[in-house]
Write a structure and sequence with these properties.
homodimer; Tetracycline Repressor, domain 2; 2 domains; 0% strand; DNA-binding; DNA-binding (chains A, B)
DNA sequence: GTCTATAGCGGGATAGAC
DNA sequence: GTCTATCCCGCTATAGAC
């Protein structure tokens, strides 16, 4: 705690950032520092795919995503991850060099899944789609990963601001990409006259994303099936944005 | 970490809960457990108000609210609070019996400020106001406390889910009250035909609140003055909800 | 690969001086 | 009222057996 009072430095923190730079160095950082063991390519025991080692690694990441979601960065203990992943805490060090590297990979995977899923959904849209079609498609896709597919995604988005600088920096690149995507969607909407001109574009974009990002906090399958929830979101956004 | 996978138990966790009970035992819990020192009523030194002791206590709470906002529950260290409040960590124990009691009071004060501010705003509305007028008034008021007035408010709302059970339970009462308020606002809107009937009322309410609750994550005075931001929010909600 | 045991440190809390 | 010194526990990380 060195910084004084006030608000966090970088403005569009967390998911959508305003910086337009969309640097291309993609596979920048995986768990840096020598990975210690990492399972051998060939699994002598079972003739199956990746061997159980890879699966264990994934169990650890899955568990970490869940814990991160519930307890936040500082509250994510190796012991909790281990319990969920059904092993002892020190075993984690066979797969990752440190606690932070586990968390790092969770948030990186999470954000990339969001990006990939939303891009894929947009790409699948028919050619004649309007700007608003594309925005609503992104709304659906964002809710789908965050609520249905990926605990990683919501962990990455909702706890981004808490992360220590080293992890945060790696994240920032992908955050900017995702922010840029949404900014483009909205700009296109404004240009096409499909979005009301009396809205502040940045604020409108962030209110929409905020509504979506907050959903993991309250949504559950039983209370209302996902399709219904998504359709309410789409109606809200459609009517909210259009002139 | 004992609970298995899945989602958090209580559904409408965090701010708006669905339970309709609006129990009336208001001043239920202040920091329980004997308060240790607590400044003497009469300040012998200065002829002024509450004496500096009360001010120190407040500095501690102010600092705790800021730290809680940035680092989450588990990341809120007494040393960080102390640094911001400009004293040494052990001095906190003169005013509070434990770290959790500090946090407890922050979130309690925070949520009550939200409740008080929104209620006051609604009460100040002219008599002929429509249901939608009232909803938009609540939107403005919620953004005002969360963005302008109170670091306590956003700390209480955004980190509610991370809190350990004992603190959470106390919070829950006020959360339910606030949730009930919004539910009523929306039900009135539906009843008056001012809200589209093709929206799932609960989802719509939570999406709106989510948009507002997420705002502290991205808003800052420089990027766009508060009144403009609020007015964009009001337009979004107005158009989003109405038939 | 996964375990038990343990080193080492950070952070909450207490004692007691001033 | 606020400080310094200190206790002690919990957590990350390492050592080394199996």
């Amino acid at each position: 705690m060195t910084e004084a009072r006030g608000r966090v430095g970088a403005a569009d923190a967390v998911v959508p950032s305003d910086t337009s730079g969309d640097t291309d160095r993609a596979a920048s950082a995986r768990p840096r520092g020598r990975r210690r063991g990492g399972p051998s390519r060939f699994d002598p025991e079972s003739s199956r795919e990746e061997g159980k080692a890879a699966k264990t690694r994934e169990r650890i990441l899955d568990a970490a995503a869940v814990v991160l979601n519930r307890k936040g960065y500082a509250g994510t203990r190796l012991a909790d991850i281990a319990e969920l992943a059904q092993l002892q805490a020190p075993a984690i060090y066979y797969y990752f060099p440190s606690r932070d590297e586990v968390i790092q990979e969770v948030v990186q995977v999470g954000l990339r899944r969001v990006l990939a899923h939303v891009r894929a959904a947009l790409a699948a849209l028919p050619d004649g789609s309007t700007a608003m079609d594309r925005i609503l498609c992104a709304v659906s896709a964002h809710l789908e990963i965050v609520l249905r597919d990926s605990e990683y995604a919501s962990a990455a988005i909702r706890h981004a601001a808490e992360l220590p600088a080293p992890i945060r920096e790696v994240q920032l690149l992908d955050e900017r990409r995702y922010g840029a995507l949404w900014r483009t969607l909205m700009e296109d909407g404004v240009a096409a006259g499909e979005i009301s001109s009396d809205l502040d574009p940045r604020a409108a974009r962030m209110f929409v994303l905020g509504a979506l990002n907050w959903a993991p906090e309250w949504w559950s399958e039983e209370r209302g099936p996902l399709p219904e929830t998504i359709s309410t979101a789409r109606r809200l956004v459609l009517r909210g944005l259009r002139p």
